[in-house]
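Take just one protein record:
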Amino acid sequence: MGWEALAQWGDDVARIEPLTGGVANDVWSVRIDGHRAVGRLGTRSDADLAWETELLVYLDRAGMTVPVPIPTKDGRLFADGLVVMTYVEGGPPESQADWRRVADTLRELHRLTRGWPQRPGWRSSTDLLHADTGTRIDLGAMPAEGVARCRAAWARLSGRPTCVVHGNPNNPGNVRMTASQVALIDWDESHVDVPDLDLVLPGNAAGLDDTAHDIAAQASAAWEAAVCWDDDYSVKRLAEVRAV
């Protein structure tokens, strides 16, 4: 249906301007009943969107600052691939102290979502020790030697508890900070995995010890190589994963 679906949020709705940063989706600022909001139109399945929107509602109710889905007039959290969310004020992290606040926020996310069910169609890094595909990952498209290196990195995470990970928190554009709050936006890559994958932050702001940081950094580089294969960025990330 496209952006015509916006009419399901009522009569006083309008698209204002496109927003940068979206890769897999068409993202716009919108106005609903005189208030600024964000609309995101994509091709995710209903099951996928239900998982994401229900997660955001839960995190909001638990006290985290996140983009909150705004229901349609008949109460749905999304319609025809479109999600409309509250606009989150703030700017990106600018200092090491800011990134430490981000780390604290991520740890709260991880605490709140222990045992959360996996996003439909996704795999965790340790699932990929045995599975070849999951969402945008297709290990069959990668060189066999690269797959072996990635799996060796992920194997070091085996047996650890899992929770929801944001998936891309080290991108400053995915963080909105004010003096009183830290918000994570763009939950497109969120799924269930080992929490340390979220904690490879600039300047080791999460304070991981040397061994934990090495394990997390290697597993994270392997994940990003697999998820993006094979553009220039993924090739660069794979080069950071040590040979077996």
